[in-house]
Specification:
This protein starts with a helix and ends with a helix. By secondary structure, it is α/β, with parallel strands linked by helices. It has 11 helices and 8 strands. The longest helix has 21 residues. It has an 8-stranded mixed sheet, with helices on both faces. Helix 8 packs across helix 11. Pfam families: Peptidase_M28. Keywords: Hydrolase, Metal-binding, Protease, Signal, Zinc. It comes from Streptomyces thermocarboxydovorans.
Length: 316
């Protein structure tokens, strides 16, 4: 709640008096600002990969996939939910029906923060039926999960309220995220300051693509990559094809990261990022070979750190 003009004046006077009594000056009182929250932690790629190994094991034990309406999807959701519950999040499972099968979204709220300023980060947890879906999209799901757990470990107390989400039935047309957004009241929708989406962030022949939607969110990601000396390009292949579109279409500011899918890496991109020109960013896109072997550790590490960086910067 904002302070009224009279209350602000009284508060400022009190701060000045305390400062003077402590031996300071009015200038000190005028320039005193609350301390900035600690910088984002490094996200250990080994921890992110441990989640991917669990998702691989779940797929292997459930018909080789984690697709909507299949046992592997529900087991994946149960795994993520158990981690969040143990870490102190308030979790909600949202149920819907698509293609005659039951689907689920998982929403996790971190206690505290301004409920009128909500920052969301999310990823789709489902995959196609042809494989275990580790890059698409175990990679984004695992990075978001480990970032959420880092929030809990740090006992982070941001200004904004943090909410994390894992979407069902993205592969059927963004069904889960559309269901969630479609059931928000106008007030709830207006309280979301931004939605960050992470879909395929460990491609084996990676590019470094940043969504060019909301300028402030885009700049946050570009600043992170500039800080580690990695050039980026705007995402065009995945534009509008993942869950951020559900939020963007409802007027919510969006942004996110992507390392490429079926398009071929150009010679210029290979010169800039390494890898192999003339080969797709992910040759196992929507295929049975999208396993834990289908991950570039460096791309996964950089992007996971970028997830945390953006969450910390945009929620402070």
């Amino acid at each position: 709640m904002k302070l009224s003009v009279s209350t602000r004046a009284a508060t400022a006077g009190a701060v000045a008096m305390v400062t003077l009594l402590a031996g300071g000056t009015l200038a000190d009182a005028a320039t005193t600002t609350p301390p900035r929250p600690a910088a984002a932690p490094d996200i250990p790629v080994t921890s992110v990969k441990a989640h991917l190994s669990q998702l691989q094991s779940i797929a292997t034990a459930n018909g080789g996939n984690r697709a909507h309406g299949r046992p592997g999807y529900k087991a994946s959701l149960d795994y993520v939910k158990a981690k969040l519950d143990s870490a102190g999040f308030t979790t909600t499972v949202q149920q819907f029906t698509s293609s005659g099968r039951t689907g689920y979204n998982l929403i996790a709220d971190w206690p505290g923060g301004d409920p009128d300023q909500v920052l969301m980060a999310g990823a789709h947890l489902d995959g196609v039926s042809s494989g275990p879906a580790i890059n698409d999209n175990g990679s984004g799901s695992a990075a978001v999960l480990e970032t959420a757990l880092a929030v809990a470990r740090a006992r982070y107390r941001p200004t904004k309220h943090l909410r994390f989400a894992w979407w069902g039935a993205e592969e059927l047309g963004l069904v889960g995220s559309r269901y969630y957004v479609g059931r928000l009241t106008t007030g709830d929708r207006n309280r979301i300051d931004g939605y960050l989406n992470f879909d395929m962030i460990g491609s084996p022949n990676p590019g470094y693509f940043v969504y060019d939607d909301d300028p402030a969110i885009e700049k946050t990601f570009k600043d992170y990559f500039a800080g580690i000396g990695v050039p980026t390009e705007p995402d065009t292949e995945g534009d509008g094809r993942s869950d951020h579109a559900s939020f963007k279409n409802a007027g919510v500011p969006v942004g996110g990261l992507f390392t490429g899918a079926g398009r071929l890496k150009s010679a210029a991109q290979a010169a800039k990022w390494g890898g192999t020109a003339g080969r797709s960013f992910d040759r196992c896109y929507h295929s049975s070979c999208d396993t834990t072997a289908n991950i570039d550790d460096t791309a996964l590490d950089r992007n996971s750190d970028a997830v945390a960086y953006a969450v910390w910067e945009l929620s402070a």
